[in-house]
Design brief:
The protein is of the alpha+beta class and about 200 residues long. Strands 2-1-5-4-3 form a five-stranded antiparallel β-sheet, sandwiched between helices.
Length: about 200
Amino acid sequence: MKLYYIGIIRNSSKPAVELCCAKELNSFSFFERKSVGEFMTFFSSTVAERTSPSQRQSVEENNYIAHTYARSEGIAGVIVADKEYPMRVAYSLLNRLLDQFLTLVPRGQWAQGPVTAGAIQFPELDTSIIKYQNPSQADSIMRVQQELDETKIVLHKAIESVLQRGEELDSLVAKSSALSSTSKMFYKEAKKTNSCCVIA
């Protein structure tokens, strides 16, 4: 799972304007980064421009998916990630970042007129693109889900080992000459009675 781009884009007028962004392009070679960065900006601006206010959409292009959330205030948040990145985490991050942006950055700085690159400072994008590279660590619901999955694996292993021990006990009982036929019958009946409680 990889998060490449997070951007805040003014989409109230055409063409859409990137207000601020953070990019994580270290997985690309040095010579590719500029071109990939320009592609991310173009892709994000195009998708944001074509997303209606108060709507969310995910657009796939090659190995990338742009998750977009357009707000009624005239801005949109865009995350570009790989196909494995969880959609729910992306949209919850966009919602949080857009709320923070609208709270911290005065509307007069971004609502109208030309915006030069780097003019709007919003450091939350930089911290979020680093923090959310591993969505299971950054997102509490995913973290709980991962812990549940790990617990489930441990329980399955424990059940398998108990079943394996039970099968070994069956073969020992069958081979034993020390147990009378009555004891063997009792063991088999008890096992049948208890088999209703086996968790599969």
